[in-house]
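Worked problem 6 (solution included).
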Amino acid sequence: MNLNTTQYLTPLARQNNTPITGGNVLSVTDISAWKCVFVHALSNEEEQGAHNVYIDLLDPDGHRLQPTAAIAIEYGWDGMQSNEKPPFAPLEKLSPEPLANIPLYRGQRLWVGVKDAIGSDIAQNFTSDPDGHQSFYVVFQRQSKATVPQKPNTISVSMDVILDIERRLAELTTAIHGLR
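Solution. The predicted structure is:
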C-alpha cells in the first residue's frame, strides 16, 4: 500500500476538527463520542489495486491513536443478514499504515463506525468501482465534550485514562521484552 497517512493526519492534528455532516456520514446522536472528520477516496496510486476502507482514529487533541484492543471498528453492508454479522475489526497497524482496514467487495455498499458505548458517527455508502478496485480512507476523532448518560450501578472512566493506561502497559511490555 502506498498511502501516506501523514499528509492527511497532519492538518487534523488539533482539537475540535469539524465533523463531516451529510453525504457519506450519518450522525447517530449529537453526543456521539466519535465524529467522522475526514473521508478520502484513494487514487489509483494510493490504493495500488486494493479494495479496502482504511480507518484511523484521533484522540481529542488530534493525535493518532496507537494500536489498541480497547476499541474496535464495527462494520457492515447494505442487505447484510443477521447471520452475516462480521467480527469487529481490530486497531492493530502501526503508523504510517492506517490502524484498521476493512475489505470492500465488488457490489457491496459498506458502512463503518467505532465500537463505543457512547456512540459513533457512521461513515457509509462506500462502494467499489465496476472492476472491484476502490479504496477509501476514513478518520474519526474522539470528542472531548461527549457526555455519558449514567446508568444505575455503573461508573464512568474517561477514554483518555484508559488509553493512557494502555499506552503505559505497552511501554512496560516493551521494557520487559527488552530484558529477556
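Discussion: Residues 9 and 64 are 8 Å apart (CA to CA).
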